[in-house]
Every structure is written in structure tokens, then in C-alpha cells.
Structure prediction request, 340 residues.
Amino acid sequence: MVKERLQQLGYTSVTEIMARGFGLSLSDQYWLRPEGSSASWDEINCFTNAFPEEFGELMLPHDDSSMPDIVKKLRSSDALLKLSPDAALNGNLPKRWRIEPDGTKVLVKAGRASCRYQEPFNEVVATALCARLMGAREYASYALEDNGFAKWASVCPTMVDEFSEFVPAFHIHASSKVPNDQSLFDFYVSACRAHGLDVLQAVEKMLVVDYLTANFDRHWNNFGIIVDTETREWKAAAPIFDTGESFWCNVDTGQPFRGYVSEKAGAVRPFARDIDSQLERFCMDMSWFDARMLDGFAEEACEILRGNPFIANDPGRIDKLHQALCARVDRVARHAAMLR
Prediction:
């Protein structure tokens, strides 16, 4: 879909749009100033200024009848593309930035037919889970937006502002060689600790959430740290976010709802090929965990997911989800109890 709509605008990739414009983002403060431009950061940054939303609207599912008007408008003004932060977005799902009536900038993400349009619902379930286990600043809070049949979206505010930026773990991983005698988990925790930031418990919480949600898409670009843009101080672990590809949304009901293993031998998600193994290999503290906080979670998760008719009307799927979630809750509780 993205490729087709870019071609309608006369572009081959979003990178080309960024290169011809300012390369604006709502994740960091890096930008490009085209030769001959006198633009300043204060004038164009998307944190403190409004930005055009037409490009983002084009990228999300909507009525085909409105597409010609949006394409025509985008073709008529270079500024609508050059000043948009949407070209800097990446990932598997259709998404866009939007300005709410109160001025809040929010990320809107849709789902895919191949996954039953389940991803936005999954984000809401993950939010409910995180609210049970941790403080509000430790996770991104997603709400469900219903734009009509198969047009559901998750909505969450920006994680950073004009004084901070998100640095993906990938950049930390790429900054130095991983010692042969050190696991990727230990390497990442040690690298952060060398910069005065203890992320051990934050990463452990992320892995527990990923286990409980059966998240198969945690990778080195959707977790990381928050850095002060002025002092370059490593401030905190980034909130847990991007948990949409979970709860077996890519698995048919007739198949087993079990753990995921990375298909490629060299791929890790993020610290091991066998994703479920990360719980017992790396979550060795669990002092923060209270199993009682998960009472009723499986029921709450299924009630949220039942709002998607592709799930609710699939015979046996809700029951199977409930059974699998109860088993995962029990395993985490037993693992935490063994460590005490």
C-alpha cells in the first residue's frame, strides 16, 4: 500500500521525501536543511509547531473515494511533504502522526488484514497489562480508536519532547563489538550502565510483558533509552511500546498458541532465538513482580479482544486465547516464586 501511494505522488520511497525536505521527526531533534533554505529549528520543528497531516492521512486506511483529493493536494504543495514528520516513521504497520484538538501530538497505528486487524486491540491489552505491573511513566499508553469496520487504530502520545529523544537499542548495539563471552542481554545492560544508566529492571519488565503478550516483534529498534538533547545525558529506559504484533494475531485458530522462535539462525528477538526462553534466562530478579496484580488479566484481555469481530466470530479463538494467557500468567508467577 505504501509503495503504491508513494508512486502516486511521484516518489519511490519515504527516504526520498526526507532527502528533499527537512527530515523532521517526533522521535528526535535531527533534521535536514536543504541548500538555499533559511529555515530554523524553532520555525519548523514538529514538537512546538503544527505540521501538515495530509501525507499521514494518505498512509492510513480510509475511503478510496477521498484518495484523489488528498493526492491532488499533496502534489500541489511541496511544503505538505517537506514539513511532515510521517516520512520518518518506520515499521510494519500503517501509521501516522496527528495533532489532537488540545495540541497533543499522537501516533495513530492501524492493523493489517493478514493479522485480523488485531494489532490496535493488542496495544490496548498491553497497556492494561502494564498498568497492572508498573508505573505510568514506564510504558506508552494506547487507546483504541474505532473509525468503522476494519479501520481500528491505536493512539498514543509522543514519548519525547523538544528536550529529549529516543535512541533505539540498535545504535547502542552498533556502537561497539559484543564480547565473545558476553550475552546480548548482558552487553546491553553493561553498555547502559557504563553511561550511568541502570536499565536492568526496565529490560526485565519488558521481557515479562513480551512473554505474557506473546510478542513476536520485539527487536533492537523498538526499545532503547531516552537521552537529554542538550546535555546528552542518558536519562532513562524508554517506556515499553510497540506491542501490537502479539497474542498470536498471525496464527490460525487451528494451530497451537505456543512461543515463537526466530526463523533465521542469526536473528534474535531481541536477546535469543527462542523468544520464550528469555523469561527464565534473563529475568533473574522479579522482586518488583506481584502475581496478584495479574488476577483477572486473562479475562480482561479476552474482553478487549472480543471487540474485534474477526476474533470474536472465529469459533474457539477466544477460549484458546484465554487458555494460553492463563498458562503464561501461571508460568511467570511460578518463575518469580522460584527466585524468592
